[in-house]
Amino acid sequence: MNQALHGRSVVVTGAAQGIGAVLAAGLAQMGARVLLADVADTAMAVSRIRDAGGEALGMRVDVTRAEDCEAMAEQAVAAFGGIDGLVCNAALFATLPLLGFDAISEERWDRVMAVNVRGPWLCARACVPRMVAGGGGSIVMISTARVFNGHPFMLDYDASKGAVLAMAKSLAREVGPQGVRVNTIAPGLTMSEGVLARPGIAERAVGIARSRALARDQAPQDLIGAVGFFLSPASANVTGQSLIVDGGGVMQ
Ligand SMILES: NC(=O)c1ccc[n+]([C@@H]2O[C@H](COP(=O)([O-])OP(=O)(O)OC[C@H]3O[C@@H](n4cnc5c(N)ncnc54)[C@H](O)[C@@H]3O)[C@@H](O)[C@H]2O)c1
After folding, report:
1. Could you tell me which of 97, 136, 243, 250 has the fewest CB atoms within 10 Å of its CB?
2. CA–centroid distance, residue 130 to ligand 1 (Å)
3. Which of 163, 46, 166, 51 is nearest to 116 (CA)?
4. How far is the C-alpha of 139 from the C-alpha of 236, rounded, in Å?
5. What is the enclosing helix (H) or strand (E) of 46?
6. 157 annotated active-site
7. Beta pairing partners, 186
8. In the predicted structure, residue 91 carries a pLDDT above the cut 80
9. What is the rounded CA–CA span in Å between residue 202 and residue 128?
């Protein structure tokens, strides 16, 4: 693995398991010191990184709570001396039952918006001043390829991830002058632990894989390169962009 993130301090939210845990491990392999933040226990994900020789720290953070996000940013600075990167990965996704647009409760709608939209905003709000204090930084938001094509039965989720895409672009304009970049990756269906646990996923995944130019399942590991690129100096003049990572299912 290349060492493009050597010595950089990166916060990854939603990193207890699934895509977030794999991203944190991949970024650590690229040389980053990683703070894994999640409302769930991150101990296992942190141990795996340390066992592989990486530098990692875990913390319980609810991204919907401003005080948790502030504490997360403070902890990253205390432990690593600053914040160079933030990956806003935490979301309500794999545990959301598929429902028609008229069957989603108002409570679920509000909770999805709180975690998936307010969460990244609060994390950015806490981390940007620390990035600026250190001379700049890079934020990677995680949206979804679903927002480019339209998909049934997760209207709240898709609306939240469309908001993430828009938020990243406007935020890029606001914080660019201070040396902070903001980009988005939009993954297609990715076989994370949570997705693999979904009933009927194997049959759906076959059809999705066939629809891709690269006709195979996507693994969480397939996302590491794109996130690492946006966090690294290789993308020093790239901001406000979104990159679809889905084996060529959606082409723009
Ligand atoms: N797996 C896919 O097919 C796919 C495709 C496109 C985009 N994504 C996005 O990738 C990201 C990760 O996907 P995944 O499949 O690993 O999802 P997942 O649902 O398995 O994992 C989400 C993680 O976020 C954490 N989380 C939930 N609420 C939180 C909160 N309030 N505060 C802090 N952490 C919280 C969970 O504990 C969990 O570890 C999500 O943003 C998802 O929307 C996933």
Report:
1. 97
2. 25
3. 163
4. 12
5. helix 43-51
6. yes
7. 244
8. yes
9. 40
Render pLDDT for 17-28 as a digit per residue (tens, 0 to 9).
999 999 999 999
Nearest atom, ligand 1, residue 220 CA:
1
Q: Can you list the domains of the chain with their CATH numbers?
A: 9-244 (3.40.50.720)
Q: Which of 239, 4, 209, 71 is nearest to 141 (CA)?
A: 239
CA–centroid distance, residue 90 to ligand 1 (Å): 5
Average pLDDT over residues 57-67: 98
Among the residue ranges 56-70, 162-176, 199-213, the one predicted with the least confidence is 199-213
Atom in ligand 1 nearest the alpha carbon of residue 63: 32
How far is ligand 1, taken at its centre, from the CA of residue 184, in Å? 15
Does the model's pTM come out above 0.90? yes
Q: How far apart are CA 239 and CA 173, in angstroms?
A: 9
* Per-chain mean pLDDT for the chain: 97
- Contacts with 177 (C-beta within 8 Å, 6 or more apart), sequence order: none
Ligand 1: centre distance to CA 209 (Å): 21
Q: Is the pLDDT of residue 241 over 70?
A: yes
Report residues whose beta carbon is within 6 angstroms of any ligand 1 atom: 13-14, 16-20, 38-40, 61-64, 89-95, 115, 142, 144, 187, 189-190, 192, 194-195
CA distance linking residue 234 with residue 41, whole number of Å = 33
pLDDT digits (tens, 9 = 90+) for 124-150: 999 999 999 999 999 999 999 999 999
